[in-house]
Design a protein that fits this description.
51% of the residues lie in helices and 17% in strands. With 190 residues, the protein is of the alpha+beta class. The chain has two domains: 2-52; 56-174, no CATH class. The longest helix is centred in the last third of the chain and has 34 residues, at 156-189. It is flat, with a radius of gyration of 24 Å. The protein starts with a helix and ends with a helix.
Length: 190
């Protein structure tokens, strides 16, 4: 909604400039026009790329298109329901191939689909709610069973609860390690 508001404001400024008339030789107006056009293009790109980032559950496979741009977090993934052996949730600050991404410091949640061949395919679910992630997992398991793949897995909500509980423990451990390290550093300085 914020993106549409920014675009609307930029369009409004352009309309006011052109309807009220402006001096062609005044550089300030050209800077404002250039900034507004840049904002419209950038926000339009963001809206299109946001709408493109989705998880598609076909009848026989899961398809996730890759992200656009130089820094990809999600690469294109095809996961056949018959090939799914295990499903789990993990948090990491790497891309879907497990490689480091420059400038990504936030741990993002991924659904990991492990195949019978041992390969793991990751699907970034950073922009999805817990209910959406749970329904994606449940639908994938349900469709895998329809394809003849008998999976004995927990439900999506159970996986999410375990994921959250595990991340709280990790966050607590990191907090205590940082607290101990800062006390040691302060003690060494004093």
């Amino acid at each position: 909604m914020l993106l549409f508001g920014i675009i609307a404001a930029a369009v409004y400024v352009l309309v006011v400039l052109f309807t009220d008339g402006f001096n062609i030789n005044d550089w300030f107006y050209w800077i404002v026009i250039g900034a507004c056009c840049g904002i419209i293009l950038l926000m339009g790109y963001k809206i299109i790329s946001f709408l493109r980032n989705r998880i598609i559950l076909y009848d026989d496979e899961i398809f996730v298109p890759g992200h656009w741009g130089a820094q990809k977090v999600q690469y294109e993934v095809h996961i056949r329901y018959r090939d799914i052996k295990d499903v789990r949730l993990v948090a990491r600050n790497k891309d879907s191939k497990g490689q480091s991404v420059f400038g990504v410091f936030v741990q993002m949640p991924y659904i990991i689909f492990e195949g019978y061949d041992g390969k793991q395919k990751a699907v970034n679910v950073y922009y999805y709610s817990k209910k959406q992630v749970a329904s994606i997992i449940d639908l994938a398991v349900e469709r895998a069973k329809k394809q003849g793949n008998e999976l004995n897995l927990k439900s999506g909500l159970e996986l999410i609860k375990e994921f959250i509980a595990g991340n709280k423990k990790i966050a607590r451990i990191k907090y205590y390690i940082c607290a101990i390290m800062s006390r040691c550093i302060i003690g060494a300085i004093l």
